[in-house]
Amino acid sequence: MTIVERCKQLVKDIYDQFDASHDWQHIERVMQNAKAILKTEPSANAEIVELSVLLHDVSDSKYTDSKENEQRILQLLDLSKQKQHIIREIIASVSYNGGNQLETKSIEAQIVRDADRLDAIGAVGIARTFAYGGAKGRKLYDDQEEARYNMSVEDYRKKQTASVTHFYEKLLLLKDLMTTTKGKQMAKERHEFMVCFLKQLKNERDGEL
């Protein structure tokens, strides 16, 4: 059994406890995206990328206040201190944090972040946004709510904005934040689909049928 296969065994039960926006299927899709980008980035360490994808949400602050899962699994995998440090750095750089994202220090970090963000946009991104909003009891939309473009990490995490507001505060911004060439290519069509969706949603809400 490879270390990546072992990691899959250790993380799957954790993701199965999360709502549909961050469940095991999310990890499978991010892995698929990462492997597509890896084909165009031959210098990247595939094992580091795959382990980082598998671990990137096990201690997500939306679901836990602790890094215990991440730390415990890294230790169980018997990775070197150096590899553990690299993977932790990659995981820390994935989060958008209301625009307060950390710098990606390696091609591996760029691949993982692009792969995760690709799953936040397009048809799947739309579905995930409303799945998370439903799980948290958020409104579908709120015409009185203004999107925030300059906010702290705390503000971003604490305010329970409507799901449609989230598109303007984050999702529609991700296309221009992609870092790999393949990631940028993949993001373009998904971004355009979201724009079309929001136009159609507005038409239906406004009675323009």
Q: What secondary-structure arrangement, pairings included, does this model have?
A:
Layout: H1 3-15, H2 24-38, H3 46-55, H4 68-76, H5 81-94, H6 107-118, H7 122-135, H8 153-158, H9 163-169, H10 181-205
Protein name: HD domain-containing protein
Domain HD: 23-121
Pfam families: HD (PF01966)
Description of the molecule:
The chain has helices at residues 3-15, 24-38, 46-55, 68-76, 81-94, 107-118, 122-135, 153-158, 163-169, 181-205. The longest helix has 25 residues, at 181-205. The model has no long low-confidence stretch (mean pLDDT 93). The chain is globular and about 60 Å long. It has 10 helices and no strands. It is mostly helical and 209 residues long. It has a single domain (3-205), classed as Hypothetical protein af1432 (Orthogonal Bundle), CATH 1.10.3210. Residues 23-121 form the HD domain. It comes from Viridibacillus soli.
Which structural traits does this protein have?
single chain, 209 residues, mainly alpha, Hypothetical protein af1432, globular
> Unreliable stretches, pLDDT < 50, 5 or more residues?
none
Report the strand count.
0
Could you say which overall geometry the principal axes of the C-alpha atoms support? Answer: globular
At the first level of CATH, what is the class? Mainly Alpha
Q: Biggest sheet, in brief?
A: none
User: Roughly what is the average pLDDT, rounded to an integer?
Assistant: 93
Could you tell me how far the N terminus lies from the C terminus, measured between alpha carbons in angstroms? 56 Å
CATH architecture: Orthogonal Bundle
Radius of gyration, whole Å: 17 Å
Number of helices: 10
Helix content: 55-70%
- The structural domain count equals 1
Helix/strand-derived class?
Answer: mainly alpha
CATH-assigned fold name: Hypothetical protein af1432
Element string (H = helix, E = strand): HHHHHHHHHH
Beta-strand content bin: under 5%
